[in-house]
Amino acid sequence: MNLTAESHRIPLSDGNSIPLLGLGTYADPQKTPKGSCLEAVKIAIDAGYRHIDGAFVYFNEHEVGQAIREKIAEGKIKREDIFYCGKLWNTCHPPELVRPTLEKTLKILQLDYVDLYIIELPMAFKPGDALYPKDENGKFIYHETDLCATWEALEACKDAGLAKSIGVSNFNRRQLEMIMNKPGLKYKPVSNQVECHPYFTQPKLLEFCRQHDIVIVGYSPLGTSRDESWVNVSSPPLLKDPLLNAIGKKYNKTAAQIALRFNVQRGVVVIPKSFNPQRIRENFQIFDFSLTENEMKEIEALNKNVRYVELLMWRDHPEYPFSDEF
């Protein structure tokens, strides 16, 4: 696979294609200054990124949309050059809410369609204005999940031209099979966005998805923040890994660039999040070298099968996806 900064798209099973490297835009709205995401997306587009990963619950889709529109107005890009992924949140799983939710996202972005729309998590929460609904005891209020019905509503959004492709996120094998074996399936998921990096290489899920022509999109491809409120910090920071740093020295690259190149070379899409201009540009500089077969094997051997993002606060949900082996 000859990947270049200009051309690193891989095919999706529905005839569309996805760039292997994208910019993640997750940020804590409490801690992130307004306009940070807007600037980050503009810098990323100037650096060559054409894939932006966002979500309604990041509370910054208006900035993403503005950045894309400004770059189109400058003549830097056309709309069809950009691949934008949006996500359906847990409180919007009932089929009748899916299309209005996507339409709301499009209104926020001020775009006519998203390139990929995915079910963010297989766990439904009680619908309503609260994104994280809780009862008076502070316990999360769940909703009965019918992933097949939610999926059918996504299929209708694709038919209506509101989403070019549709996929899922954080689904395990059983949940993927439930959709794929659904009677009357019209479109199968083109992608499954999951945690994936050298400490959590997802070999079994990756193999399963390859067999079914589902692209894995790896979030937290550089490990993740060390925020103990939602991150498992028992696993050491990925970017301090001696092997990644040693290989980096050989190629005059950072440990982060080695980690990204590793996944891209395996056909895993990566969406590193950064609002730091230097790191945004650095993360894109992974197309001017390639890892040897032996280096790929060495990095694969770093796998610890330990997630950083465990979402343990929802582990009592009937559709909590991470109790299964994969």
From TrEMBL:
It comes from the Eukaryota. GO terms for molecular function: 3-oxo-5-alpha-steroid 4-dehydrogenase activity; Delta4-3-oxosteroid 5beta-reductase activity. Residues 21-303 form the NADP-dependent oxidoreductase domain. InterPro entries: AKR, AKR1D1, Aldo/ket_reductase_CS, NAD(P)_OxRdtase_dom_sf, NADP_OxRdtase_dom. GO terms for biological process: androgen biosynthetic process; bile acid biosynthetic process; C21-steroid hormone metabolic process; cholesterol catabolic process; digestion; positive regulation of cell population proliferation. Gene3D superfamilies: NADP-dependent oxidoreductase domain (3.20.20.100). The record marks 87 as: Lowers pKa of active site Tyr. Substrate binds at residue 143. One of its GO terms (cellular component) is cytosol. The active site is at residue 58. Belongs to the aldo/keto reductase family. PANTHER family: ALDO/KETO REDUCTASE. This is Aldo-keto reductase family 1 member D1. It comes from Taeniopygia guttata. The lineage of its organism: Eukaryota, Metazoa, Chordata, Craniata, Vertebrata.
